[in-house]
Automatic annotation (TrEMBL):
Name of the protein this chain belongs to: NAD(P)/FAD-dependent oxidoreductase
Gene3D superfamilies xref list: FAD/NAD(P)-binding domain
Coiled coil: none
Domain of life, per lineage: Bacteria
UniProt xrefs under InterPro entries: FAD/NAD-bd_sf (IPR036188)
Pfam families in UniProt: NAD_binding_8
Length: 488
């Protein structure tokens, strides 16, 4: 039987482990923290309430080609939908309202912008399962659905500002802009349209779902399936050097590229080490979890029923805030994401006190408390919010990195979404999951298709590892203790 070690138990590490175990590989996952999950952990950050630590809303997870085939409902994963997916309020009192249905969303955007929304997203949502196979797989391969991929890919390569130009109303432009801002990039840069298009399309297909009981349910279900398949997870094991690894056939790293370089040291080819150490990280996140009595008093009624609320004003205001953050400056009014997961999953609340999940986009490594900036943006669209807060828990960019070393400088998407890194992360090579060391692979969100609790980076890397095993090369060399191992 072939053997494998996966370093890191985030969604990608566990997805890689499950795929390998399903193919008969004996797999052990090593996790440095006391609990599994990476960015999908959930706990009582304020007394009696369940708060997601990072990843919270999961349209791309529900649409993951790999996770959908696993039957994770047998292992306790239950998706729950809010009444409304996302709302982007404006100072005028209007709002862009995103519903699961393309047609209902379009109806709310008016006689001009509604049909334009429908023309863009109807085919992408209807064909999302086929599209996901193309956009979430390895970048170098023959696409199965070239026409659909081209229909997505041509606008995806544009700046988000160009796609926003399709719409005339402030509400429609802001609605798309808030989703596009998940890229953590200036919205006038090439390919910044891609993330907004993919999230909206997946949401229209599967909804902006939350996991019942918290995002930890995603990785708990993966770990349960892994155990059923004969794999193991060991927590509290911090791998700092390849010499700590057991003698196995393959090793996969669910870590940032720099961590791979640190662990492998001079075993890593010099050109790969340079690429991993030059890998660019993007802006950070400053997170505040609130305990709110009675919920947030949004002035726009739809926001009171929405699982996600984007705060940033007009498209132009969001774009300017993102430009400043990426230039290393903190905007007076940052882009803020608000999660109201309890509306879909009431088990997270305690009576009339509810967990409200928020974070602001801030410069990389930002060291100033951004709580008041977040509260200010919420108060802007929900006057009286401050008076309802009965508890808070904050996490700065430095604390994000301490919580999960993959989040360098608070970069919760594990890498700047520059055009080159969107296409060629983490380095220029035909196999982005290969480290250049026989039997060793990287499977984190620093690899294609990038961030999200969808597990596709791990699944893609595991397939690379399986191809290596099928070739029968270098068995038991991964740790350096086999016949062709060592530091040379």
């Amino acid at each position: 039987m072939s053997t494998a070690v996966v370093v890191g138990s985030g969604p990608n590490g566990l997805a890689a482990a499950v795929l390998l175990a399903r193919e008969g590989v004996d797999v052990t996952v090593l996790e440095a923290a006391a609990t599994i999950g990476g960015g999908t952990r959930t706990s009582e950050l304020t007394p009696g309430l369940l708060h997601d630590h990072c990843s919270a809303i999961h349209p791309m997870t529900a649409g993951s080609p790999f996770l959908r085939e696993l039957g994770l409902d047998r292992h306790g994963l239950r998706w729950r939908l809010p009444e409304i997916d996302c709302v982007h309020p404006l100072d005028s009192g209007e709002a862009g309202v995103l519903r699961r249905s393309v047609h209902e969303t379009a109806e709310g955007l008016g006689a001009v912008d509604g049909p334009r929304w429908r023309r863009l997203f109807d085919p992408l949502a209807d064909g999302f399962d086929a599209l996901a196979d193309g956009i979430m797989g390895p970048p170098v391969r023959v696409p199965r659905h070239p026409l659909l991929l081209a229909r997505f890919g041509i606008p995806a390569l544009l700046p988000a500002t160009a796609v926003a130009g399709l719409w005339r109303t402030e509400a429609a432009r802001a609605l798309y802009g808030g989703v596009a801002a998940h890229a953590f990039r200036p919205l006038n840069r090439p390919a910044t349209a891609a993330i907004g298009l993919s999230i909206v399309a997946s949401g229209h297909r599967y909804g902006w779902v939350v996991a019942e009981g918290g995002s930890r349910a995603v990785t708990d279900a993966l770990a349960s399936l892994l155990t059923e398949l004969g794999g193991r997870v060991e927590t509290g094991v911090h791998v700092r050097s390849h010499t700590q690894l057991p003698s196995v056939d393959v090793v996969l790293f669910d870590t940032a590229p720099r961590a791979v370089a640190d662990i492998l040291g001079d075993r890593l080819p010099a050109r790969v080490a340079r690429a991993y150490r030059r890998y660019r990280h993007g802006p950070g996140a400053f997170k505040v979890d609130f305990a709110v009595e009675g919920g947030v008093p949004w002035t726009h009624e739809a926001a009171r029923r929405a699982g996600t609320v984007h705060l940033g004003g007009t498209f132009e205001e969001v774009a300017e805030a993102e430009r400043q953050v990426c230039a290393g400056r903190m905007p007076e009014r940052p882009f803020v994401l608000v999660g109201q997961q309890y509306l879909a999953d009431p088990s997270r609340s305690d009576g009339d006190v509810h967990p409200v999940w928020t974070y602001a986009h801030v410069p990389h490594g930002y060291a100033v408390d951004a709580t008041e900036a977040i509260v200010g943006q919420i108060e802007r669209f929900a006057p009286g919010f401050r008076d309802r807060v009965v508890g808070t828990s904050t996490r700065s960019p430095a604390q994000f990195e301490e919580y999960n070393p993959n989040f360098v400088g608070g970069d919760i998407v594990t890498g700047a979404n520059t055009a080159p890194q969107l296409l060629l992360r983490p380095r220029l090579t035909l196999d982005p999951y290969s480290t250049g060391v026989p039997g060793m692979f990287i499977c984190s969100a620093a690899t294609p298709p990038g961030a999200g609790a969808h597990g596709m980076c791990g699944a893609n890397a595991a397939r690379s590892a399986l191809r290596y095993l099928e070739r029968g090369s270098g068995r038991r060399t991964a740790s350096g203790h086999g016949p062709s191992g060592g530091c040379g």
